[in-house]
Design goal:
It contains 20 helices and 16 strands. Helix 14 crosses helix 17 and helix 17 packs across helix 20. It has a five-stranded mixed sheet with strand order 1-2-10-7-3. Strands 4-16-13 form a three-stranded antiparallel sheet. The chain has two domains: 113 residues, no CATH class; 326 residues, Cytochrome p450 (Orthogonal Bundle). With 531 residues, it is of the alpha+beta class. 53% of the residues lie in helices and 11% in strands. Bound molecules: protoporphyrin IX containing FE. It is found in: Endoplasmic reticulum membrane.
Length: 531
């Protein structure tokens, strides 16, 4: 009796607890069922004829976030087949309208300032990382002035100085890195390319003083800044989470390093430098207002971060593509021998123009592996889509994905094939843009305040964007990537570890797409290697 009472007491409690738990479970399941039911019903019953079709989704708020996030290019292509070039999907509760193809690129990227806005979307992510009063933490007219300062600094004269700097950085990196010691070996290539990119970019764009600091403190600090760029920070940018605390500390510390350097350079009375910091120190806004030191510092962070992800990912893809096509690596080597001489003299800026296949490698790699797969804008006034009945309302976000047209069969024969020779005019795979659409030189030009840029309105190939937010780093990226490529080609042969022509998949988990890791390749020194 006593034992029964002892056992029966807790058992009945447990049963009643179980009952409560299962009641909560039933309540949640019912709630979810009703939410899903209403969400589906709404999609069928309340279609808005003046808005682009909505991608079908079961769950409210989550919408298509997961399928989009796993593989954005595949998401765009599959839904384009179902719904056409212009469609809307739910991204973290927000109605996001995608418009692909050259018309879509033009509609979004060349949208008028009263209609579309980038800073509202990006500022939560970029301002804590770059710092205040620059890029998306200021009126667009000020960003245009800042872009002008940065663009003016990237002159032919500057590039002439950069090529030997970049060549030396690559050579010295390959000489001192243990993974490249010996006659041959296997290396996980993306982390190496990330380091090569930051050393070359920091030295060329920010001067030797800053470059040297990357061997000490700056590399770790930039890594912490980088963590602030994770997609989750679109929602949690404000939260006192460990990575956000490290981001804020890194931002203050890096900005101080730049501001101290600016002061030292002024105090020294330095003259004739070609790095961007120097140009910014000598630039003035309209009305003859000098650029404040903290803004120079924040622009330096922005520039390095903007270039780092894109160039590092592109250079990794180049190396991985070459490992899958050793024949092309030989074509590149032969191009250098033929056009620069068998002794392969030190590379100059002028030499790059003699290496069209090297340029085509960058172009073709960006066609298939553009690091920025989604470009977003807030809609400020209802925007009628020309030639359709659609009007995009102001509670939508617009999303351009130039990568879709860059891999569209109507412009690029065998679009999924990485074939740099296709950029030769008489290649059977030559893009229709090379064959019969006006080239960028013939395209309509416009000045948004940072110099004339081509509108790119007809072009299905826009890895550097278009419009007022177009990249100002394009020429620098080309110089940097081609120089790194040329130095690596003259010293190494690559192939896949298993000798196949396979290429690793893409990691879309961060904001910029990049190769999945580890991504190992086999390397072998060339005869006559210059290292
Ligand atoms: C903007 C791509 C390298 C600095 C952009 C945009 C794209 C892009 C697509 C437009 C973004 C938008 O419309 O929202 C690339 C690629 C690169 C590269 C593919 C390398 C392969 C660089 C480098 C720098 C740089 C090396 C700096 C030296 C910038 C800046 C903007 C920009 C300042 C302007 C942002 C704005 O106006 O909103 N880039 N970029 N980029 N990029 Fe690059």
């Amino acid at each position: 009796m006593g034992i029964l009472q002892v056992v029966a007491g807790p058992l009945s409690q447990q049963f009643s607890q179980l009952g409560t738990v299962s009641q909560i479970g039933v309540a949640i399941a019912s709630f979810l069922f009703v939410a899903v039911f209403l969400n589906v019903l709404q999609q069928f019953l309340f279609k808005k004829p003046n808005e682009p079709p909505l991608v079908f989704h079961w769950f409210p708020l989550i919408g298509s976030t997961i399928t989009y996030g796993m593989d954005p290019p595949r998401f765009f292509k599959e839904n384009r087949e179902k719904y056409g070039d212009c469609f809307t999907f739910i991204l973290l509760g927000k109605k996001t309208t995608v418009y692909v193809g050259p018309k879509g690129n033009d509609f979004i990227l060349n949208g008028k300032i009263r209609d579309v806005n980038a800073e509202e979307i990006y500022t939560v992510l970029t301002t804590p990382v770059f710092g205040k009063d620059v890029v998306y933490d200021c009126p667009n007219s000020k960003l245009m002035e800042q872009k002008k300062f940065m663009k003016i600094a990237l002159t032919t004269e500057a590039f002439r100085q950069y090529v030997p700097i970049i060549s030396d950085e690559v050579t010295s990196y390959l000489k001192r890195t243990p993974d490249f010691k010996g006659k041959s070996g296997i290396v996980d290539i993306p982390p190496k390319m990330a380091q090569i990119t930051i050393f070359t970019a920091s030295h060329a764009l920010q001067g030797k003083e800053i470059r040297d600091k990357f061997d000490e403190t700056l590399a770790d600090l930039y890594h912490d800044l980088d963590m602030g760029f994770s997609p989750i920070n679109f929602m949690l940018h404000w939260a006192p989470l460990p990575w956000n605390n490290r981001r804020d500390y890194a931002q203050r510390t890096v900005a101080k390093i730049y501001m101290d350097t600016i002061k030292e350079r002024r105090a020294r009375g330095e003259t004739g430098a070609q790095d961007i910091m120097w140009h910014l120190m000598n630039s003035t806004y309209k009305g003859d207002v000098p650029v404040p030191d903290h803004e120079i510092a924040h622009m330096m962070i922005a520039l390095l971060m903007a270039g780092q992800h894109s160039s590092s990912s592109t250079s990794s893809w180049i190396m991985l593509r070459l490992a899958s096509r050793p024949d092309i690596m030989e074509d590149l080597y032969n191009e250098q021998v033929k056009n620069l001489g068998a002794d392969l003299p030190p590379l100059t800026y002028e030499d790059l123009a003699k290496l069209p296949l090297h340029a085509a490698i960058v172009k073709e790699t960006l066609r298939l592996h553009a690091p920025i797969h989604s470009i977003m804008r807030a809609v400020k006034t209802p925007m009628p889509v020309p030639g359709t009945k659609y009007v995009i309302p102001t509670d939508h976000v617009l999303l351009a994905a130039p990568g879709v047209s860059a891999t569209d069969e109507s412009y690029f024969p065998q679009p999924d094939l990485w074939e740099p020779h296709r950029w030769e005019k008489d290649s059977p795979l030559a893009p229709t843009i090379v064959r019969n659409v006006p080239s960028e030189e013939d395209d309509e030009k416009i000045d948004y305040g940072y110099g004339l840029v081509s509108k790119g309105a007809n072009s299905p190939y826009l890895p550097f964007g278009a419009g007022r937010h177009r990249c100002i780093g394009e020429q620098f990226a080309n110089v940097q990537l081609q120089t790194i490529l040329a130095i690596i080609v003259r010293n190494f042969k690559f192939r896949n570890v298993d000798g196949s022509d396979k290429v690793i998949g893409t990691d879309y988990a961060s904001l910029f797409s990049r190769p999945l890791e580890p991504a190992k390749i086999y390397w072998e020194r060339r005869e006559g290697c210059q290292l």
